[in-house]
Amino acid sequence: LAQAGGSSSAGGWLCWPICSARRASSAMKSVLAVAATAVGAMLAGSVEGALLRAQRARQEPDTSCGKGFDNLVKGSQDYYRTAAVELWTHPSHVTDNATFEAELECWFASMCTTKCGGLPSQADSRKKALTEKCLSVQVDWLKVWNMFSDEEVKWFKKNYPSDEVNEEGESTVHYKQAMETVKEVNKKEVLCLTLFTIDDECVKYPHIRLGK
Predict the structure, then answer these.
(1) What's the rounded Cα separation, in Å, for the pair 45 and 210?
(2) pTM
(3) 162 and which of 34, 151, 155, 174 could share a cystine (Cβ 3.0–4.6 Å)?
(4) Eight-class DSSP state of 99
(5) What is the dihedral of CA 73, 75, 80, 83, to 10 degrees?
(6) Is the pLDDT of residue 113 over 60?
């Protein structure tokens, strides 16, 4: 009996490291399985969210560019072409009208489509000063911004297509991020284009009308 008991005890002793390893391995597999399930659920949620956003984008037509630059009448397109040459004169911005062509055309088309929100032309009172400020490489954007009326400021902030869309806790992201980029990089030129478009009656001429 003693021998049998001893044999049993020895067998248990010999099994201990092997059995412990098996139990640890089994526990690890369970942990990995749970982790894999959690990751899979997260990925599935992320993919589902992306699909929903894409579906929503397809369902909701993008009207941020109005009816689109290509759908403007030729006279309006010609106006923009002359404005893009006359207003982009700063040595460091002179080629930005080509770099950001799509974004600038988008904003111009939006203004034309909405008739600049019905804002009245102020060409008689500010066209000369506006021309001087917009063509001078010494004048910064703030002096042009100060020429906006209160109604024009509200309209611009409401209608320029670069609203923030970031969720709480996330870094700032804008709808049509490239539109925000051109507004910041070429802020003065964008503001000048906006006021000239308004003052040229949004627009009734085939070329930009500079003050004399």
Answers:
(1) 55
(2) 0.69
(3) 174
(4) H
(5) -170
(6) yes
